[in-house]
Amino acid sequence: MSEATNNLRLAFLGTGSMNGAILRGILGAGHDPKKITATLRSDNRAAQLRELGINVLIGSEDPEANTKAAAEADIVFLGVKPVGISALCAEIAEALPAQTVVVSVAAAITLATMQEQLRDGQPVIRSMPNTPLMVGSGVVGLSAGQAVSETQIKLVAELFAGSGEVHVIDESQQNALGAISGSGPAYGFYLAEAMTNAGIAMGLDEKLAMDLARATVAGAGKMLADPQANPADMRRAVTSPKGTTEQAIMTFDAQGIPAIIEAGAKAAAARAAQLSAELG
Ligand SMILES: NC(=O)c1ccc[n+]([C@@H]2O[C@H](COP(=O)([O-])OP(=O)(O)OC[C@H]3O[C@@H](n4cnc5c(N)ncnc54)[C@H](OP(=O)(O)O)[C@@H]3O)[C@@H](O)[C@H]2O)c1
Predict the structure, then answer these.
(1) pTM (2 d.p.)
(2) In this structure, what DSSP letter does residue 224 have?
């Protein structure tokens, strides 16, 4: 992490699963915990967060927790549920320094929806992280609003880079990105679940079937983590002509699995667009 990034004062407003994962990734990359403040609504997860050496403010004890944290930060990560983002933006709008960058991790909430609640010219970034961020293997899509400078987007990208791959994209691509990498970890788990059931159907003991499916999907995932890896080439390399794997792949193709996956991803993107309209 560069010195410029390490010197940033960070605020995490609503530090649940996703903001907590981002925070841990940033700490893991060596950020000074004393420069980080996290807020929560209740004190449920406060002890765990305090163990990280960061400052923790609880909304139920201090109604100004979010505004105090926002007022002292260079970058503010909004980690509440999508339905709470507009209200949180309105709550912190006046307290935010003019150059503080607001980064939302909420699905489906547009830059325009956030900008509406914030002061004119406040830099805003919409992000779509995924849960493997928790194990340092995440994917994050970032889209910057008009007031965000090149330096600011680079700093935010560097913060996320500690826990995964970062892609800066136009906001119009956010729903498609979310349908692949945001929802995608569930697709990987779904594949492992289906492989487990296939093993059981062929007479394997449930625990053995699950162990085989879990370790195999995890192992394939590890091989794919190489940025040079090409999934189609890798699949061909383990599919010998007239062999056993070829029979499985031919059956998947004949039954239309690729088209089914495309339809599923499109349904996820369509749902994101619908949520944006409802919450905008
Ligand atoms: N989980 C994912 O896979 C995923 C992936 C991509 C994006 N996201 C996005 O991440 C966001 C959070 O999801 P999550 O799964 O991390 O939810 P979560 O675990 O429930 O975290 C939300 C946190 O926000 C706190 N909170 C709520 N209102 C607050 C307020 N006004 N001030 C301060 N803290 C407040 C909650 O505190 P209490 O517990 O005390 O109520 C909780 O700790 C969502 O917008 C979601 O779209 C999640």
Answers:
(1) 0.93
(2) H
